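USER: If only I could read backbone structure tokens as easily as an amino acid sequence. It would mean a lot if you studied the pair and described how this chain folds. Here is the record:
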Amino acid sequence: ALAPQCPDIEPLCLDLVDWDATEAAVGAAGPFELLVNNAAVAVLQPFLEVTRAALDRSLDVNLRAVLHVSQIVARQMIAQGTPGAIVNVSSQASQRALRDHAVYCSTKSALDMLSKVMAMELGPHKIRVNTVNPTVVMTDMGRINWSDPQKSAAMINRIPLGKFAEVDDVVNSILFLLSDKSAMTTGSSLMVDGGFLVS
């Protein structure tokens, strides 16, 4: 879909859980100046019913893949000697417990802390690392997990702005954190939650 707007774009279709294939494909795709880690899964299960498969899949995609892709890209940035920016897409669920979200909340909390450590260690190389932490976003995954009117009403009622986020709300926040307008911002989490965390 991006090809007509960005003819120079080079799509890579990867299973990020496949460590070796990711290393080969991403390693050959540089050089990089910017990175957005957006891949995620949300397998919702009550705490007492969490399966090993759900935990493994969530850790693989929501945390391990971010660490691995960021390592590959950051090493290239350092080798080039040019400044860079990394934005990891986290969630308000990293900071607030949600029913049936034990694994999702945990992996997003881990992602927030990973991002802070990355910011600390990559800062001397002039690489900034931040997270964007949205509320429910009206993507396909968001619609699937929040299509129940009772469930969504309970969440929306806790959001002072009274609505879920649209994709552009998140994209615009990411663009800010990638740009020079946030040149002094690293190790931070930008909440795009309509005020959910203050309610």
Summary: The chain has six helices and four strands. The chain has a mean pLDDT of 94. The longest helix spans residues 52-80. The first strand starts at residue 34 and ends at 37.
